[in-house]
Each structure stands twice: as structure tokens, then as C-alpha cells.
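Entry 14. Structure prediction run on the chain below.
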Amino acid sequence: MNSIATRTALGLAVALAYGTLAVPLHASAATQAQAYRFEIPAQPLDSALAAFSAVTRIQVLVPGEFTQGLRSSGVNGSYPQDQALGRLLQGTGLSASYIDGDSVTLQRRGKDDDSSLQLGAIKIDSRQLGATTENSGSYTTGALTIGKGEQKLKDIPQSVSVVTRQRLDDQNMNSLQDAMRQVTGATIKSYNAGSNLNDVYIRGFLVDQVQVDGVSQRTGQGDMATSFDLAMFDRVEVLRGPSGLYQGAGEPGGTINLVRKRALGQFGLSGELSAGSWDRYHSTVDITGPLNDQGNLRGRFVTAYENNQSFVDYAQNERPMVYGRLEYDITPATTLSLGGAYQRNNSTPAFGLPAYASGKLLDVSRSTFVDAKWNELDERLWESFFEVDHTLDNGGQFKTSLTYRDAETPTRNFTWTDDAVTEGTGDSYAIAYSYYTHIKSVGVDSFVTLPVEAFGRSHELTVGAEYQHLDKTFTYGGGDYFPINVFDPGSIDIPKQDYDMPNGNWSKSNQYGAYARAKISATDWLDVIAGGRLTWFDSDARNANPFFNQFNSTNTNIDHKFIPYAALVAKLTPELSAYASYTSIFKPQTEVDADGVPIDPRKGKQYEPGAQARVFRRSPERQYGGVPHL
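Output returned:
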């Protein structure tokens, strides 16, 4: 899509610093008459202005103190920009003045308001960034949605990061692993060269579930159920530390929220083609826009294709992806969204080189491939989703989302070297296995955010419920050894195997949760946040795994487990906040003790002091945070 051209406020700030400035309201007739499609729900005024800028490419300049504590009732429908801006400003006591055709300032209305700007020397902020990062041209964002509804980054009492659409494009990040390599505190464990079989760790803990538009999708070690091409997403949000309030059961390192691209109200078409070393090719086509004259029906279609070789001989990966989305405004305040995505990963993985028994490494080319040339990993991933988003009359939000995901690996056959190399001869052994994995998951989340006026102050209450279901089958067979010589990889000719797969593990689990969070404005500078979650969890698992000597069946039930949450956020300046937070989480276990009793859940908790600062530059957020204590 076309990028928003960002214009500096420096000239205006200098003019204001030297005296008053009077500029009459004006804009070209063509600009005023052009209609735009707006889908801006009720929200804090500065976030609404950011969304307005993203649609119209109008830069809004306003003193920071003017918008503090103000909310906008939003605007939905097709309007010229001046009418839309007027609707956003209704009831705020602010008026607008155009500097030129694509810049506008806001001022407080006086008794003798003549719709012109009369201001003294003040500090000017540019309000251009909301949660959506597409077309922002920025490496940061004004808000995140990882905690149900939009929250400003500096108001989140945990360490957070965001990888925006602009950064994904600029740095050619096409997979989740590419993006997470750029995130503080995250590491990637790669199982082989030539495929996307990776695990993501945050603060040393496996990420065992990933949110997509706020709906949790649980995975497991070595699963590939999070590997959609990033061409279909607007941004990657990362929260470090336990997130049990909204996630329920899981690991304490952190969580990831992938935010899908929305269907836009204006037509847009873009494409990308890139080529790199080791025959790496990637292409995308992205088209979006209204599907009827009223503009209340919109669509989006994204397709991506990647094909790459590797520095290792024979290793390769092919990955086509398609994503589609429809959005329909049932009313100006209610939007229905549905869509789906499909991706196939087909690769020839290479599992690396062995070493001598002494630990000494081989003196061979790094491109040496000592596995079977028929190694194959074939994964197919389907996803469908449904969403209803409604803006309440009081400015609150009601949202219900459902996601179904089906990830299957019908073909997963390969060998790897499983013995030390004999010095002098180069002799070793490879072992062959066949695997099958099928993971089906359902996630449903429904929440409402409500503004509350009490004791002369504005507060916010969020309540919601969530359901997660996971059905996982993992089977394998094989274990035969074949002699190889690492000094003569061309002579390696292992016959392709077709093993029965009687071993493995089978599990089904359900998780139900109800959560609540209250953000209380105690003073002008201090917010008190308190909340909790009740979780019910049940699972049935069966293991027949001679490789790990596991032969058992377990049933795990956890009833109304309470997860508390508490935080303080001190707003030291409009750009700087300090916080202290307490969060916790638990992880159910499927293993049993010597008496056959299921092991108790692992528990994690974190006390985190920190500070978050927003700098008015085109740069990532400046942020300092704590570490988990387990």
C-alpha cells in the first residue's frame, strides 16, 4: 500500500515559539469533497485522531494537554474529511484549523471562537499513530491490542515490543521466526536447515501458545502451527513475562499476538518480489477495497509465495500462502468479519553434521549434506475465523472472536546422523524415522470494555470469557540404522522407508476462563490496575513412547484456578511512565509420578518494576523493564 508521508511539526513549533499565529480554516474544495471510509470506534481522542490520520493522510497537530482524558464517540461510514473530523471532535470542546491541504491543528474553543488558531508558545505533538501500523511508515505504534482492546504502550505495566508492518517490509521479515529474532528477550531454536521447523523462546521459556487477533492458539514443542507467512499480518506484538490474566494456562516467558490485516475502505493494490542468496525468492500480492457503492462491504486478499535453497546441499523449502477476509458493517457501530487462510510448507530438511567422539568438529565444507536425499517435511495449515466488533453508545467495546485452526503433517520422513564419526575413516550411522502430526484447535474469546465515571474521574472495566480446545495426535515409527561415510556424502544412498507408526501420544484438552480487569484513575498521575482470572482445565492424554520410555494414560482436571493481577502506573510526564506489576501463570502437566498420580502444575509469578518512555521520533519505543522471578 502507499505509505503515509509524514510531515514535520518543527516549522509550526518555531512559529509558535516566536509569537501568536492566526490561520483561517481552509482546505481545497476537492479535498473537502472527497469521501473517505471511516471505521473509527469510540475511544480516547488521541487514538481516534491517529486513526483519522491513517485514513486521510492528514497530519493532526495538537498540544498534548489538550487531548488528555478526552474521548471521541468515533465515526463510522463514508464522509468528507472535514465532516468526519467534526464528528470525532463533537463534545470535546476542540475545534480544527487547516494549515494547508494536509495539515490541521486543534485548539480549545473560546467564547468568541472564530474558527481560527490563536495560540501562544506551546509544545506541539504529532498524533499520527494508533494500533494499526499499515501505512503509518513507522517502526513503532501508538497502542497495542495484546490485552483486550487498545492500550497505549506507556500505559502497559509490563515489558512489550511491537514489530510494525513498515519494519517487516523494510527488513524483509517473512516468517514469525524472522520477526522474533529482532525482539528483545526472544531466541529461536532451529531444528534443521531448509524448513521452518523452529521453536520460539522468550526469557528462556518456550512459547507454547500464540494469540491471533487476541484469540489464543496453543501449540507444543516442535509444532509448526504458528508459521503463516507474515504478509497477512499488520504487526507482531510481544509481551514479556506471564500473561495468565488473558492467556490462562501456559509458560511464564511471555506471549505473542499476531494482528491480521483488515479490509480497507479505499482501493489498494500492492506487490513485492525479492531475491536473495541461496536462491531465495519471495513474492506477495495484496489487494483490498470496498465491494459495494455504500462502502459497508469490504474485502482483502493476500497471497505470498516463498522458495529458497540453503547453504547446505539439497536442503530447500517451498511455501505458498493465501489469506482472504470480508468485513460488513451491519450498523455504523457493528462490524462483522470472517475469513480464512491456507499455507503449505514443503521442505527437504538437513539436520546438520556429526562430530568425533572426542567432540572435535569435522573439517568438511559447511554445505555437506549427510542425510537421505529423500528427506521430506510436508505441512498443511488451514485457519478460519469469525468476529463481531460493536462500539457501545457509552464509548465501550464489545467483541467476540472465534478461530479454528487445523495443522497436519501427512509426510514427515527423514534421517539424521545418530553416531559419532570414526576418526580416520569418516564412518558413522544414520537413523531413519517417519512421523505424523495432526493438531486441531478452537479458540473463542468474548469481552466488553466499559468506561466508568465515578468520584469525578474516568475509569475502565474489562470483563470477558474464553474457551480453548486442543486435539493433538503425534505418531512415529522406525529407528533403523544405516552406515554412511561423511567424507564421501555422494556415496550415501539410504533406501526410502515407509514405516508403520504405532508409537506416539494422543491428547485432548479444554480450557475455560473468565477474567476481569479494572483500571482505576486514582489521581491525575496514578492509575491502579487490578484483576484476575478463573480457569478450568481438563485433559486426557495417552502415551506409547518407547523412545522416552513413556507408557501411560493420564487425566488432568484443574477446577476454578485463580490467577491474580495487579499493577500501578505513574504518569510522570506525558511521554514517561513508571510502573510496578505482579503477574502469574500456571502450566498443567501430563506426566505422572511413581504412584501414577498426575504431577502438579508448574507455577510462575513475576514482580516487575519498570519505566516506559515514548520519544517523538521515528524510532522504536524506549523501554526498561524487569525480569521474571519463578
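The domain at 257-590+598-624 is CATH 2.40.170.20 (Maltoporin; Chain A).
Filed with the rest of this week's runs.
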